[in-house]
Specification:
The complex is a heterodimer of chains A (about 675) and B (about 400).
Chain A lengths: L24 H31 L1 H12 E6 L6 E2 L5 E13 L8 H14 L5 H11 L7 E5 L3 H9 L7 E10 L7 H4 L2 E3 L2 H7 L9 E3 L2 H5 L1 H4 L4 E6 L11 E4 L6 E4 L3 H20 L7 E7 L6 E7 L13 H8 L1 H6 L7 H4 L9 H10 L9 E3 L2 E4 L2 E4 L7 E3 L1 H7 L2 H12 L8 H8 L21 H7 L7 H4 L3 H7 L10 H12 L3 E2 L5 E7 L6 E7 L6 E2 L4 H16 L6 H4 L7 E13 L2 E16 L6 E8 L8 H13 L12
Parallel strand pairs in A: 2-10
Antiparallel strand pairs in A: 1-8, 2-3, 3-4, 3-5, 6-7, 8-9, 10-18, 11-12, 11-23, 13-16, 14-15, 17-20, 18-19, 21-22, 22-23
Chain B lengths: L6 H14 L5 H7 L2 H22 L8 H19 L3 H6 L1 H21 L7 E2 L4 E2 L1 H19 L7 H19 L4 H18 L3 H24 L7 H8 L13 H13 L5 H4 L1 H4 L11 H33 L4 H25 L17 H19 L7
Antiparallel strand pairs in B: 1-2
């Protein structure tokens, strides 16, 4: 107890008791290191915040705004297409479309797939793989929507709107759908509207097209897309991270509807023309031509080239392209196999198919021969059952004629041997004269596009020795194939051999004959306008198209008048080949039949079968022509039997007068 | 008995007590508080509450301010309570603290295994309690205890290895929860404890090398060899910050949105209404893991600076307390707590700005979460209680 009075600090250190803790220099150093570390760490944080917020703040602010603001495109109403009298051929109906906004889709792959699966379940005609393909094609911009389906059914719209929370990134947008009041009429000419393709987008991006736009994909819709499409508007919408709208869409640019396009087509004439083709095929069937299955007709104004009707058979309803498309219905238009099965309903035969013109070409031969001074139209040349030259025999279409004929009569009765003789003369011309028959055919617009405001257009083919050498230059062809033989010139004179022309090219030739030797540029568009009341004239024409002025081709008017006479007699003299259809017609018509042989691929004949392509081309009224009509009935047999009666129906509608078709053996 | 005590001895005892930092009574506690630290704490807590109100204002459940205030109040009570506890008591309770913590963590794991998922919480009715958060402070206390038991042989490799072995068990338990972020916080606290505890530089170097090699193995070498220690999403989150634009809608989506939010804040911030990244929910987890990004968006570089300066103040005072600690145990505890706060603040801020891996570490005093808030107040209380009992040298 006594010792307890002393303070412990005076005692020696007790080994069992811990030494009092003192801050050693070593520990002090370590604390200083920690302090330095803390300063460094905060310096790093400050610098990073400085660089993000002060140096790059604007960039991130823009990114944050992009996150939340969605610029919605408001589809402009596409312009209507009118016929020459203002009847609405194509208009619009309001519809819905489903869009996917990639930025607003679920952030995990699995959740995204699950959403796409349920979307495919709701929206008819859409599969997950199709959506993924669309998204891939769309290029990955998260702020441009992918249009998954247009023409949504109302039930589906209601469902998606009710369950919006389950479908982040899915938006229902208003859209316009094309509507065709006249159904299948003018189908191939009108074309259709479809989603822009990747290549088109690449090419048209600079002109303001968007990746999910629709645009005219064929026909008039394609040619005049820039007028019809209008200007899409836009609206701004604030969304949260789930893509759910957090504000009303605010209109920033109002959409501007497309302009109305007025065509030169007369829809009543068009209807008559399409019915005439069906009637022509039926007539061919009745005449025993069982393979008749395709046809085309062109009706145009010979004064300026305005196309009044253009039809191709078989045809289809353009509405199959609209909205919820049906793969089965589209197959004949897209799939080569199905197209062949249905005989190519999407093809515009009037401009896209070249046929041998047969006897409808004879006026060309006659004009060329007169211009080249190889023929005096009033000399009599023998018309015989056959024509012998260079050891070959060329037969006339009928063995019953054996007399001398002038040009008018030869055209009227379509004497082949008369023209064989002209062909032989062309062949025997010295080489320095060139190939005047082909040259005149070219001047009349054959072998080149007509320049109509539709594409694609077939060039046709006017064969020359040079062409032959080029076309058969490669094996297995031999020198014999490459050589131009006299028979080629002789066949060409009656529109046979390798010559190919489209119905529109031929209509242009006959327009030239009708208007006194001027070549017109066929055209379909009349003007773009602010349309007035339906069926009325334009409220205000914004731009007039019309064709270019007809170009004189330099034919002698007297030569032309002989040909005109021959064509008139063909329709009005009882021996004329068109007399059966037009002899009794109340309006004077001039025209020419054609029966062109062509090897066709038809069922049951793997090596093809030589079949007659039935032609008729002509115009009326004879003294003041205002309509040229050209008809082709594929495999339709003789021109007078199938094509001429079809053409007569077109004239009937045009002149509102009907004539009686007289049964008559012709051509 | 009392007769034997004379006034001299009583005075001497009091003097000794004072020298070794024994304190009792409200008055002496208040007198010896680190008022600057207290002010920094009050500042950061108030600032955090104000910020979280704006951050969570537009959330579906409404502002979390009410809840956070409750937690802060509970934390303040705990803070005041621990002021009156002599830290030496924790040292004497090292083993119960350590094994108690392990037991709770094992319980969490077992409950998690029963529900076949990640489970970090224990539901105690009114409050879902997150043992690994409270474990942070308990872990520091236990490690400090183990170190001070070996204070005489601290230079020996054996002592270091024993302490590291003790520490690795709770770290592993947290890691397999799985909660990599918290495991990293524990590891940081361990490193700080060993550092302040005075182990040799050589040992520190070896441990650091092992840690670096281990990280490389887990993140890079073993996956390349086909052994995945981490789940793919974990590895992606940890390494994704090195290439944030690689996969904008996948693993690094959060990161990209976070950087955008921070950057969009600019100098003055976009305000609570204008901060679209937060308000329209582009920034995920903005109330917890990405609270910093949200704060940065709403209050800009100014707001960020205020927060960082407050943290810096707290850390500075904490390190000062380490220097003035009464004994080694106190020094290690203070060092561990200060460094842990520094580490958490740094990793959370750096992660939101794309310069550190994405780990689920809450932003101290800001992120929504009761366990984290209360634990941080507890840690600050212990720091203050160490300061209160620190050695006073005559100036």
């Amino acid at each position: 107890m006594a010792s307890s009075g002393f303070p412990k600090r005076f005692l020696p250190p007790d080994p069992r008791v811990e030494e009092p803790y003192r801050l050693t220099p070593q520990i002090a150093l370590r604390v200083a290191i920690l302090g330095f570390l803390a300063l460094t760490v905060f310096a790093v944080l400050f610098l990073r915040a400085w660089s993000l917020q002060i140096l790059a703040g604007d960039k991130y602010l823009a990114a944050a705004n992009d996150n939340r603001v969605r610029t919605l495109s408001i589809e402009a109403k596409r312009g209507p297409i009118l016929d020459v009298n203002g009847k609405v051929l194509v208009q619009n109906t309001a519809g819905f479309r489903v869009e996917l906004w990639p930025a607003d889709l679920p952030k995990t792959w699995a959740a995204e797939r699950a959403e796409l699966r349920s979307l495919a379940h709701v929206v008819a005609g859409v599969s997950v793989s199709k959506i993924l393909a669309l998204m891939k094609a769309h290029g990955g911009d998260p702020l441009t929507p992918v249009v998954v389906q247009t023409g949504l059914h109302r039930d589906q719209v209601y469902y998606l709107r009710e369950h919006a929370a389950d479908f982040p990134g899915v938006r229902i947008a208003n859209s316009w759908l094309r509507k065709y009041p006249y159904q299948a009429l003018l189908a191939q000419v009108l074309g259709y509207v479809g989603p822009i393709t990747a290549e088109e987008y690449k090419a048209l991006k600079k002109q303001g097209y968007n990746a999910n736009d629709s645009m005219g994909q064929a026909g008039i819709e394609k040619t005049y897309d820039s007028y019809l499409r209008g200007h899409d508007g836009s609206a701004q919408l604030t969304v949260n991270s789930l893509g759910q709208p957090r504000s009303q869409a605010k209109l920033s640019v109002a959409p501007q509807a497309g302009e109305a396009l007025r065509l030169t087509i007369d829809i009543n004439l068009q209807r008559a023309a399409e019915r005439a083709l069906v009637a022509g095929i039926q007539a061919a069937h009745a005449a025993g031509e069982g393979f008749a299955d395709g046809a085309a007709v062109v009706a145009l104004d010979p004064r300026d080239g305005a196309v009044r009707a253009m039809a191709s058979y078989p045809t289809y309803k353009p509405s199959v392209w609209v909205g919820r498309t049906n793969a089965k219905k589209l197959a004949p238009l897209l799939n080569p196999e199905a197209a062949k099965e249905h005989n190519y309903p999407g093809l515009n035969r009037a401009i896209q198919v070249g046929y041998p013109p047969g006897s409808t070409f004879k006026p060309v031969t006659a004009l060329a021969a007169m211009q080249e001074h190889l023929l005096n139209p009033y000399d009599l040349l023998p018309c015989t059952p056959d024509f012998k030259a260079y050891g070959q025999v060329f037969r006339n279409w009928t063995p019953l004629i054996d007399q001398g004929m002038d040009l008018e009569t030869a055209l009227e009765e379509s004497c082949d041997t008369y023209f064989y003789a002209l062909g032989k003369k062309f062949y025997e011309l010295p080489p320095d004269r060139g190939h005047p028959l082909q040259a005149w055919a070219n001047r009349f617009g054959l072998g080149e596009p007509t320049g109509i405001d539709l594409s694609p257009e077939s060039d046709g083919l006017v064969p020359t020795p040079e062409w032959r050498r080029e076309a058969f230059s490669k094996p297995p062809y031999t020198e014999i194939d490459r050589t131009w033989k006299p028979g080629y010139s002789i066949q060409l004179a009656i529109g046979q051999g390798d010559l190919l022309v489209t119905p529109l090219q031929m209509a242009r030739v006959y327009a030239m004959i009708a208007n006194g030797g001027k070549l017109v540029t066929p055209h379909l568009a009349d003007d773009v306008e602010l349309s007035g009341a339906p069926g009325k004239g334009p409220q205000r024409v914004l731009r007039r198209f019309g064709g270019q002025p007809p170009q004189p081709v330099g034919v002698d008017p007297s030569a032309l008048s002989v040909v005109q006479q021959g064509l008139y007699k063909g329709a009005h003299d009882p021996d004329g080949t068109s007399y059966g259809a037009f002899g009794d017609f109340p309006v004077p018509i001039a025209g020419k039949t054609g029966t062109a042989e062509k090897v066709m691929q038809v069922k049951g004949y793997p090596n093809g079968l030589k079949l007659n392509q039935s032609w008729w081309c002509g115009y009326g009224p004879y003294d003041d022509p205002n309509l040229v009509v050209c008809v082709v009935i594929e495999n339709g047999g003789e021109g007078g039997a199938a094509a001429a009666p079809a053409a007569q129906k077109v004239f009937s509608e045009w002149f509102h007068k009907t004539g009686t078709v007289i049964q008559h053996a012709s051509d | 008995m009392a007769i034997d005590f004379d006034a001299t001895e009583s005075r001497a005892r009091t003097a000794r007590r004072r020298e070794v930092g024994e304190v009792s009574g409200l008055g002496s506690v208040l007198r010896r508080l680190d008022w600057l630290l207290l002010a920094a704490l009050a500042g950061v807590a108030a600032y955090g509450l104000w910020a979280i109100n704006g951050i969570t204002l537009h959330d579906p459940g409404g502002s979390s301010l009410g809840r956070q205030v409750t937690y802060a109040a509970a934390g303040t009570c705990l803070f005041v309570a621990v002021l009156f506890v002599d830290p030496d008591r924790y040292r004497r309770l090292t083993r119960p603290i350590y094994f108690g913590t392990l037991a709770v963590m094992l319980f969490v794991l077992a409950a998690g295994a029963a529900t076949r998922g990640s489970k970090r919480w224990v539901d105690v009715g009114f409050f879902t309690f997150q043992p690994s958060e409270f474990g942070k402070v308990l872990f520091v206390l236990a490690i400090a205890g183990f170190l001070s038991q070996r204070s005489r042989s601290i230079a020996s490799a054996r002592s270091v290895l024993e302490v590291v072995a003790y520490a690795l068990i709770p770290i592993a338990l947290v890691f397999v929860q799985p909660d990599i972020g918290t495991a990293l916080v524990y590891s940081a606290a361990l490193a700080a404890a060993l550092f302040v505890g005075g182990i040799r530089w050589l040992h520190l170097g070896v441990l650091a090398a092992i840690a670096i090699v281990g990280a490389l193995l887990v993140l890079w070498l073993l996956p390349a060899a086909g052994v995945n220690v981490l789940k793919p999403y974990q590895a992606q989150r940890l390494t994704g910050f090195t290439h944030p634009d690689n996969d904008p809608r996948g693993a690094t989506y959060n990161l990209r949105q976070s950087i955008t939010a921070v950057g969009a804040g600019g100098l003055r911030g976009r305000g609570v209404q204008g901060a679209t990244q937060t308000r329209l929910d582009y920034l995920p987890e903005h109330a917890t893991d990405f609270a910093f990004a949200s704060l940065a968006e709403q209050h800009g570089f100014f707001g960020v600076s205020i927060l960082l300066l407050l943290y810096l103040l707290v850390v500075w005072r904490g390190l000062k307390i380490v220097a003035g600690a009464r004994d080694m145990f106190s020094a290690v505890v203070a060092g561990g707590i200060s460094f842990m706060l520094l580490f958490q603040a740094f990793v959370n801020c750096a992660m939101a700005m794309g310069i550190a891996p994405i780990t689920g570490i809450p932003l101290p005093f800001v992120s929504v979460g009761g366990s984290s808030m209360i634990t941080n107040f507890l840690a600050m209380g212990i720091l203050q209680s160490i300061h209160v009992r620190s050695v006073r040298r005559r100036g």
